[in-house]
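User: Hello, can you help with two protein structures?

Assistant: Certainly.
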Amino acid sequence: MKEGTILNIQRMSTEDGPGLRTTVFFKGCTLQCRWCHNPESINFAKEHEWFEMKCIRCGTCIVSCSNKAISFVDDHISIDESLCEKCMECTVNCPTNALEAKGGTWTAQELYDELIKDKAYFGQQGGITLSGGEVLAQVDFAYELLIKLKESGVHTAVDTCGQVKFENIEKIAEAASLFLYDLKIFDSNLHKENTAHGSELIIENFEKLCRLQQEKQDFKIWVRTPLIPGITDTEENVRDIAEFISQNSAAVERWELLAFNNLCESKYDRLGRKWEFRNVKKQNAEKLEKIESILREYHKLNGKAFVTGGESKI
């Protein structure tokens, strides 16, 4: 029985595939995007999240830590990661749940038993989405779970950044109904500057996945591009990705370009990290319309490309 590390389960989701969905967030990612909106999902190891408003400064967490890794610094919880053994006793004993553990171990059967409870709510279009982090970094666990869901008649979507071995993608294609494939930055140097890896493997894997889709045609592909101001929303990057998707358009059902938001600020605060995009402004309507006007030039994308966070449809 395979085991995996899961962050959390989010029910009643409408943004991670078609219909009403339950989204499972995997812990650990193969990229380190500067703007990441799920920073708690980057590291593979368990982490602590501190909710300041819940904390009554009782010191129970400090007493619970046998390694003396926890202290208060300037009235804020401070955890010395070099001393912490990730036992998470501090989170178990916290009387107000101000300190939470991010990441828990599940077997594929345990997770299946929890998720299948939601089947009655999915209707004809909904289902379960595996997101991250990077799902395919835990490929054997994900595959075992997906097979169980497939055998139960559940529609499944898998969100991937593509920075994995293609054999992992190919294996998951046997069980998934839909791939949500991230194409963030086409230029490899810029991709490495902003995510710690170049884009070569991601592009190569996408082309292979598109060919596989055309051969098998028993799964669908949606592309997703986060529109990060000054980085991914530039005219050059949008055109590069649009041209690339156009070349593979027969295999792509939908391309979502997601307008920037700053809803993750509080996550960085709770993790005790700084977020360099904290004061970056959202794209205005004029900027989003400019992006949409670029997409209209690529006729193979008509009816397939959408800017979410705006009102228009290409």
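That covers the first. Now for the second protein you mentioned:
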Amino acid sequence: MTPGDTAAPPLLELRGINKSFGPVHVLRDVDFTVRAGEVTALVGDNGAGKSTLVKCIGGIYSTDNGETHIDGQKVNIHGPRDAAHNGIEIVYQDLALCDNLDIVQNMFLGREKRSGLILDEPAMEELAAKTLAGLSVRTVKSVRQLVSSLSGGQRQTVAIAKAVLWNSRLVILDEPTAALGVAQTAQVLELVRRLADNGLAVVLISHNMNDVFAVSDRIAALYLGRMAAQVRATDVTHAQVVELITAGRSGSLGLQPEEAL
């Protein structure tokens, strides 16, 4: 496991992010740092603010205040196009794949390559195959397989490859192993680790602590809309992370009692 270069500025840094929906204050002064070459696990109970934070990063929600920095430079992300322009891709839990299309068609959906007025199928097929090969994906027999014929693990692999295809630098994965069996989970976690080892920044949202500790370099725990702690995975135990998730603190680590209210 090769951690990111801590001498370089973080690929993504959020400072003091707040987000409310009417009277409900969902995110409170959240700081969050993600480095290239690392897997950062984002954990928290249901309602902790994980999905809202990710949607703020992806430009789906605007923040009420706070700053977003990419490579140390302040940026304004006003929508998903801005996020994509900054190399941010999100793979949501529903994967957003079309069963009636093949792998190539799914990977280029809405971003098709053309040669004049017609689709450049050979170029898209070559790029899709090259992307899967670059991720050492060996479980897919043909890039012309219909997605409907793929297993859950293969679908997750295609969704991740689709995100990587667009020169992404930060890939956010929302519960990528939630519906998978043991063997398929191992394949997807291996792919997650490979993304970071290839130099990408990866944010892994997961409730599965075994998955978190298997591949993560750092763990960021949200508690009731606040960032309880962001620590190296090697510096905490499974039990400490569970306490951060459920109570916002574990011993001297995490929120002070007055902050956790």
